[in-house]
Amino acid sequence: MALVVHKYGGSSLANANSILNVARRIADISRLGNKIVAVVSAMGSSTDNLINLAYEVSTNPDPREMDVLLSTGELVSCTLLAMALRSLGEDAVSLSGSQAGIKTNKQYGKAMISSIEPKRIVAELEQNRIVIIAGYQGITENMDVTTLGRGASDLTAVAIAARIGSSRCEIYSDVDGIFTADPNLVPNAQIIDEIGFEEMLEMASYGAKMNPRSIELAMAYNMPILVASSFSQSKGTIIHQGDSMNNNVGELRNRVRGIATDNNVAKITISGVVDRPGIAAELFEPLADAGISVDIIVQNAGIHGTTDFTFTVESTDLTRAEQITKELSSRIVGSGVVSSPGLAKVSIVGTGMQDTPGYAAMMFRTLADHKINIDTISTSEIRITCIINSSHLEDAARSLHKAFELDDSEIK
Amino acid sequence: MALVVHKYGGSSLANANSILNVARRIADISRLGNKIVAVVSAMGSSTDNLINLAYEVSTNPDPREMDVLLSTGELVSCTLLAMALRSLGEDAVSLSGSQAGIKTNKQYGKAMISSIEPKRIVAELEQNRIVIIAGYQGITENMDVTTLGRGASDLTAVAIAARIGSSRCEIYSDVDGIFTADPNLVPNAQIIDEIGFEEMLEMASYGAKMNPRSIELAMAYNMPILVASSFSQSKGTIIHQGDSMNNNVGELRNRVRGIATDNNVAKITISGVVDRPGIAAELFEPLADAGISVDIIVQNAGIHGTTDFTFTVESTDLTRAEQITKELSSRIVGSGVVSSPGLAKVSIVGTGMQDTPGYAAMMFRTLADHKINIDTISTSEIRITCIINSSHLEDAARSLHKAFELDDSEIK
Q: From A88, A143, A175, B184, which residue has the greatest number of CB atoms within 10 Å?
């Protein structure tokens, strides 16, 4: 008998049939004698519908009200799943984030979990009930509802798995696992059987659709995650502590694990800024205050005591970011701001590239062979990212996928 | 400066425009220096949509899960109204039933309010905030969400008004007030300026669309209720303690106040039951246990120590009620069960008919003049109800409305 935590995404719960399908899968596992906690996202596109409603009554919806509004999406799906399980003869109970004891700080819209008090979860499990928990939400000390940020039901699931001592966390959606590249871009993309936390974190941060904070949390608690589909019996991808394996498997792991892509990138350059201590902070604090995520930052020192900053933002943030940067440029006496929309990121990721030369050169050579110009380069220990024109993204992803031998499904 | 409690029904909050309309009305009153608590129902038909979803995943949805599911409708509307008020520059905050301190027993689907702890409401009002409360819901001692029964947002509003010491409770929907009869049946129906609690209770119980429990509660706390439309500036109907007025206004009040109608009636007769103490309880307890509301009950003692019972139920409950009664009939050795669907109730209501002869005779004469056969008669001190064939309901309502001088709008 095991204690397992599942998480089901909105695509797995899009309508009554999908909900009944998930209920049957959970019932099957429960009947084998397992104790199950299932964390759910909101049904299909219901969160988007609620957001649209909010913007119909207000151009700038209040964050506290928005969080209560959005939290209802998960309440709907968790109660329906509990009802569906009961209709199959299983004893199931739904819990809101509050009832599940998920306490957070007051940062509406992207609250951080401060603690989990799982008394109620444990009590319901002891009554041999299947526990369905509304993901993505928690409650402050003042009993105000908060949400944890888009896609954060994964985070709820991992946090609860860690807190109640589950042996692993299983995350289900409508995709069969983590692919070596986006299958929409790269038809030869393969499912990865297993991947290390750090590699997955780079993959997720640079394009693979998974909540990065949930991976960080799983890494911190060494909680293995299975990523699989609720619509098939495919075995999916295990994300777990990669280091030890890396040593064990040796040469086999000494390679690129996947290609991460992101087609939603814009670049801003502010040039001729007087170089002095603190100038970077002055530049990026206002962007952070405006809630704009800055990704890659490159600074080039000039020859006359001035410096240029280049950074990337999501395309959707470009207009606001440009506006803030132009205001700053006139204040801190920069010589100008230039922005480029329509860019993309392509990254190779793998712990195998640590301390191993040649990966960067091979990446640049492959792109050059396909006449793809590299705009900006950024690297971590286990990732190399190139900013390119978005019209070249598909070609870049396919050629890198082939060059780093990911087309071959034999060695995964 | 006054402290007022408003309640807005689903028709007043059916879409973003309606919500903004309600927000403007509340903002206008707030700007006059009033403190406002507004209780809301779910938007338009959203509760029905949630019920349909539940029955798509389960033929017999769990009551606890159903209550959490349905409670989300009011959370959506209360957050949207708070956002809309903020977009108009007002400081507003939404509270769930739980946050508003509404404690109930565990009777899911029709929970009773056990207490209201208005600490949070009072604190928000002291911060000069407009407080928007999700109606129709509360929370048990175990922190499980309950709902108070269909239409019970009125009850929430009256209970909060009484608890926080509001001078009156204003209930807004898309109708202009309480009419002397259903305007869909009787084109000459007039809006009643003021009506006593007891009269309104009879009107509501016998057809007028208002939650009877909320009127009982208002009567218990002597809390005047204004019923009006959120779409017009019409002055609506005041429901208040009628007795004193009755004495003051004298002859003017000595009349029928309104015609209540209900077109959703079925009748069941169980005959040849051996008459002994306890037989009525044996008969009606199983119906109550099945959640079937029995309305009018008539017992006729027979001549051979047997008795007949006739009772009415809502048409929608007829099949189940008939089944239960037939099982009972064979157990307690009745001689047969007969049921009649397609009936209607028409009632005249008014405190004026207390201790005053002639009202019943005039009612029966009016129906007879229109060749309408009376099936069953039931009376209270301030009401006379006739069960008739539903095809005659419109004719009955119009002729009674005229006969009791309600067509004349001068004296209301």
A: A175
Q: What CATH number is attached to the domain comprising A56?
A: 3.40.1160.10
The amino acid that residue A260 corresponds to is A
Cα B32 from Cα B26, distance rounded (Å):
10
CA atoms within 13 A on the CB side of B155: 24
Contact criterion met (CB < 8 Å) for B53 and A16: yes
Same domain, A18 and A162: yes
Give the single-character DSSP code of A2: -
Residues A56 and A165 in one domain: yes
Residues B163 and B287 reside in one and the same domain:
no
Boundary (domain end) residue, out of A174, A192, A214:
A174
Residue A392's CATH number? 3.30.2130.10
Name the region of B177 (left: φ>0; alpha: ψ -120 to 50; beta: rest): left
pLDDT tens digit sequence for B109-166: 989 999 999 999 999 999 999 999 999 999 999 999 999 998 899 999 999 999 999 9
Closest CA to B158 of B100, B216, B101: B216
ipTM over 0.90: no
Write out the H or E segment, with its range, that includes residue B384. Answer: strand B383-389
> How many A/B residue pairs have CB atoms within 8 Å?
114
Residue B122 to residue B101: CA distance in whole angstroms:
11
Structural domain includes residue B64: yes
Per the structure, the complete domain to which residue B47 belongs is given by 3-174
Bridge partners of B340?
Answer: B267
Kindly report the backbone phi and psi dihedral angles of residue A180, in degrees, each rounded to the nearest multiple of 5, phi listed first.
Answer: -65, -20
pTM assigned to the model: 0.85
Could you read off the pLDDT of A71-119 as tens digits, one per residue?
999 999 999 999 999 999 999 999 999 999 999 999 999 899 999 999 9
Confidence of residue A353 (pLDDT cuts 50, 70, 90): confident
Rounded Cα distance between B404 and B366, Å, is 10
A29 shares its domain with A162:
yes
Using the structure block, give the residue that is written with the tokens 């389960």: B58
pLDDT of B376: 87
Residue A271 and residue A163 share a domain: no
- How many Cα atoms are found within 13 Å in the side-chain-facing hemisphere of B83? 29
Torsion of CA A297, A302, A307, A311, to 10 degrees: -20
* Distance between CA atoms of residues A207 and A383, nearest Å: 12
Element (H, E) at B378: strand B376-380
User: Parallel, antiparallel, or unpaired: how do β-strands A194-196 and A383-389 relate?
Assistant: unpaired
In a domain, A351, yes or no: yes
Least CB–CB distance from A76: residue in B23, B61, B72 = B72
Q: How many domains does chain A have?
A: 2
For an interface test with B, the pick among A83, A108, A139 (most B C-beta atoms closer than 10 Å) comes out as: A83
Terminal CA-CA length for chain B: 31
Decide: helix, strand or coil at residue A23: helix
CA–CA separation, B68 and B137 (whole Å): 9
Domain boundary among A174, A203, A230: A174
Domain annotation covers residue B209: no
Query: What is the least distance, in Å, from the CA of A100 to any CA of chain B?
Result: 11
**What's the CA dihedral at A268, A271, A276, A281 to 10 degrees?**
-10
Chain B residues with CB under 8 Å of a chain A CB are: 15-16, 19-20, 23, 50, 53-54, 56-62, 64-66, 68-69, 71-72, 75-76, 78-84, 86-87, 93-94, 96, 98-99, 120, 143-145
* A281 belongs to a structural domain: yes
Token pair 């509406």: residue: A108
C-alpha torsion B184→B186→B190→B191, nearest 10? -30
- What the block records as the tokens of B148 is 């108070």
Cβ within 8 Å of residue A195, ≥6 positions away: A178, A203, A237, A238, A239, A242, A257, A258
B392: DSSP letter: G
